Amino acid sequence: MTGSSQQAGWCKKPTSCTDARATLKVVRKTTYTIVLLTITAVAGATGTSDVSATVGNSCVLTCPSKPNITMVTWKISPKVGGPCTLGYRADQNKTDRTNCSDSMNWKFRPDWDPALEIWQVGIDHDGNYTCEVVATEGSFHTTYHLTVLVPPRLTMYCDDHGNPMCKAMAGKPAAQILWVLESNSTPKEEGHDNGTVTVLSTFTAYSTNVTNTTCIVSHPAGNQSMTIACHPPGKLPFVCLVFKTPFSPLFMH
């Protein structure tokens, strides 16, 4: 009886043993896949987040707030100028800063909330911001890539041939110019040393009966529109009416 039981075991048939081995392989593969997906998810969570702020506004970058923090360090690498750091050590209850301008500092007490605040964001604040937190439960870090938005200045005028001209000056990134009426115009871009771009578009009407022409400037920092009436040389002077939508600054905390 005992021998018979040992011989039978939990595999009653050779085919069942084969099925069991196949099932075990599937389980192993599934477990391996789950582990890989978990690693991928963790790696994705520690990646870089893209944020934006409109020039002249303030911007707050958050940092993992953990209990029993022992050290916090903000490492800032702007596109223009050298890197800077803000640091806090709990054992000394002390903060320090290296090469950081007065425009950025802790928003609150770093032992309570290690968020970073930038006052009056400027173009030179473009860059990477990494917060590293050391606590009793481990180390954590968050990285942001900050893009500073500069709203363009919109102007419209009539050229010597009576064609409407729409110019979005010194925007960052480059603005998009659209016309309410259909036009075959191709915008021209001019880059500047500070990273801003001026876009110029000439309205070319398919019909000669067009009078009032509206230009729409689309930009991440807000949209604007302007209307103008141009006349050929020797005709009545043009009349310019301005309609602007308020800017809607985009900045993330």
TrEMBL record:
Cited Pfam families: C2-set_2, V-set
Any GO MF annotation of the entry: signaling receptor activity
Keyword vocabulary terms for this entry: Disulfide bond, Glycoprotein, Membrane, Receptor, Transmembrane, Transmembrane helix
Domain Ig-like: 114-229
Subcellular localization, as worded in the UniProt entry: Membrane
Protein name: Ig-like domain-containing protein
An example Gene Ontology CC term for this record: external side of plasma membrane
Principal location class: membrane
Family of this protein: Belongs to the CD200R family.
Domain of life from the UniProt record: Eukaryota
Any single GO BP term: regulation of neuroinflammatory response
Record's bilayer topology term: Single-pass membrane protein
Signal peptide limits: none
